[in-house]
Amino acid sequence: MFSLRNLPNLLSLLRIALVPPVVYYLLQHNYMPALVLFVIAGVTDSLDGWLAKHFGWESALGKILDPLADKLLLVSSYISFAWLELLPMWLVLSVILRDIIIVAGGLLYRFFFGTVVINPTYISKLNTLMQIVLIAVMLVSLAWLPIDEWVITLLIWVVLFTTLASGIVYIFAWGNRAIYAAKKI
């Protein structure tokens, strides 16, 4: 039975469902539909977060679906752009490696010490924002309004910097948590 309380999770599922068509259109060099779907995904991301917080419709499932939808869309977009040779592979690998570090740190902490609570840091939120901005600017440039190459190059370097900074912050955070937890044992 449908309840409005489930709307944020349904919006996250919609974002997950948008990933294959976005990738398809990117790989077909059909950038306008990819841009439109990427914008729809962005709007539903904002809307599901607002609904969950504003109405208290947060759920354990939503805490998994929302970041999963974000990561699937971003990583698949980055891989697609690298495949098309529109983004450097080293940038894509740094984005993926950062995510692997976060997940591996969480899993190791869970295995050795117990419950994991991952709170995004400010640099992590900035990193996600910059990753989204880079993809959006590239899509706008390819689909509709050409943007100077130096802007995209600058964004690539900003994404690399925020990705590395965020990864380092998470490494230190997991390390500090592990040291603190080990001292309690």
Description:
Helix 1 packs parallel to helix 3 and helix 2 runs antiparallel to helix 5. This protein folds into two domains: 86 residues, no CATH class; 99 residues, no CATH class. The protein starts with 6 loop residues before the first helix and ends with a helix. It has 185 residues and is mostly helical.
Would you summarize the structure shown here?
The chain is built from 6 helices and no strands.
Helical/strand content category: mainly alpha
Query: Considering DSSP H and I runs of 4 or more, what fraction of the residues is helical?
Result: over 70%
Rg from alpha-carbon coordinates:
18 Å
Query: How many domains comprise the coordinates?
Result: 2
Provide the succession of SSEs. Answer: HHHHHH
Total strands: the figure is: 0
Main sheet: strands, sense, barrel: none
Strand content: under 5%
Question: If you average the pLDDT, what whole number results?
Answer: 92
Q: What gross morphology would you assign? A: globular
> Which spans have pLDDT < 50 for at least 5 consecutive residues?
none
* Distance linking N and C termini: 46 Å
Q: Can you count the helices?
A: 6
